[in-house]
Automatic annotation (TrEMBL):
Protein source organism: Zea mays (Maize)
Pfam family, one: Orn_Arg_deC_N
GO molecular function: arginine decarboxylase activity
Modified residues (N6-(pyridoxal phosphate)lysine): K106
Keyword field contains Lyase: yes
Gene3D superfamilies per record: 1.20.58.930, Alanine racemase, Lyase, Ornithine Decarboxylase, Chain A, domain 1
Catalytic activity annotation: L-arginine + H(+) = agmatine + CO2
Lineage: Eukaryota, Viridiplantae, Streptophyta, Embryophyta, Tracheophyta
The protein's name: Arginine decarboxylase
Amino acid sequence: MDKNYGELYNILGWGEEYFAVNTEGHLSVKPFGRWTEPGQEIDVHSVIVEALATQPNDSTSKSQFPMILRFPDVLKNRIETLHNAFNSAMESTGYTSRYQGVFPIKVNQNKHVVQDMVRFGQQWNYGLEAGSKPELLIAMSCLPVTEAEPKPYLICNGYKDADYIALALSARAMGLNPIIVLEMEEELAIVLDQYKKLQQKLPDDDAVRKKFEPVIGIRAKLLTKLPGHFGSTAGKHGKFGMLADQIYEVAETLGKEGKLHWLQLLHFHIGSMIPTTGKVYDAVSEAAGIYCNLVNEHGAKWLATLDCGGGLGVDYDGTRSGDSDMSVAYGIQEYASAVVQAVRLKCDYNGVAHPVVCTESGRAMASHHSMIILETLSAIPEPQDEDTSEQLLNRIQDLSYKQPRAPVGGATAAVYSHAADLKKHGIEMYKLGKKLGKRVVADANTVYNYHMNLSVFSLVPDFWGIGQLFPMMPVSRLNEEPTLKGTLVDITCDSDGKIENFISRENTLPLHLFEPSLGGYYVAVLVSGAYQEAIAGKHNLFSGPTLVRVNSSTTKDGGFEIERVDLGPAADEIIGSMRYSVEEDIITVIEKKAKGTEEEERVWAWEMVEPLMTKALTTMPYLNEYKVPEPEPEPEPIP
């Protein structure tokens, strides 16, 4: 490859471990991170081509854009990196307990993602965090039931009613390890009440009843705050948790009830994307202080785990900066070291045994393993308000052919008149030349609207909702200089459906001339595996994309295997989610209207409508095989 234009997108900043541009000028994935060997990179363009040719699971339809490509090996590498970082930090500092984390299901509730998290983390007893009853059910189905200790944590966060708490208590009866984290003081009363009811269903055996007693945690509302968007719900006036004095009151209540041994975890979360390790250290140190006070001053000797919540950030823009919501000034190892050091020093100072360290690092685990692939439909320059360069040049040429003629004879008045005409002509030529120069510069900066097979609201809702920026770049032709400046326009009927802010802090993205004759031109939205699917909207009843699961090949270098292709929701499923009965409210009504009345029967109309309606209902709502028909050739003139 003569030239690598990946640098225009700062791929070495945000993508150094997992993404590169290969010798074909294609975006490639390094599935094993820094341990990826030469030849093991996966060519993304090749994956797209093969995915389009692969028959989707449980469908007779073809694969369709937009699509998400998932690389489970990247997910596995992220989990390994997290555990290696904490183990290294603990070994190097003499930390005497262990690290045992959980994945927050809310980050990506997709079945295969959650199952992968559990499977890849099993050797470290990696668990799950749930924040609602549906997520709790997912966790109960995915976590293994085992007698081995320590068991994976099932952290139960969020506001809870009696049904939520009863369900969590029943998970312990199954042999899982749920920990009910109290968000408010009054939740303790619900736990006590539901446990009494559960006891009635347990065998009349004290040993069994003891085994299935609740394990609870308390969420601390810390005073440490973050700057920017992600810190807006933290601090004293934050949405979740209890202040220190309230926590101590709950401990006292548990003691009076003879249930203080239930309290085994202290949890906090100061917000996503903690910008610096200084902020990490401050928050963990504050929480560790509360932990030590619970042990030393309130008799909570069964307290054994400090859950540091989420906040391990992602460097979306590749700047390694602590001054932006789009970046963090550290990596996983620095984060782990800050957490471990803060806990160790606070506990050693207070004479408290080192607790198990838990984190709920979801964004940093899931972001890198998937990318959204957008298909270009067309690229159109934004209209200019003034004359084009060609029009200005034609006007200059016309003037040059129409210079004022010199007067016949030498009359003084005629000479002065000719001089005035020449001056006027020259000024007009000068103005047009200056205008042409500006027009040429403007042409070089023409912004092209790239119309993409995309709904911003369904695929990158964080961009629309909170201004989140993601790395974006072409999948191919990265050995050619991208000479155009583009914005990405979606296909929804909404003026907000446009991407015109990028990690470069520019309002355009460098793109190539769109030439359909060269094949598809695709743009990848990278580091997008966290939250986007979970909070996607249905604006215009567009919905989720095709999901493609890509494994590294075990038989050849640089190869890959597409494990499965799952189409996104078809129109009938999306319409049904809005409380329509597709059969009664859509199909039957349309059929009746198409056929008409008995007096005016139009069977032919139904015969025309029915196959088109069926196709529309059973396929994804995005544009499919979009192509502008070639104009029919003009008939040859009759001789």
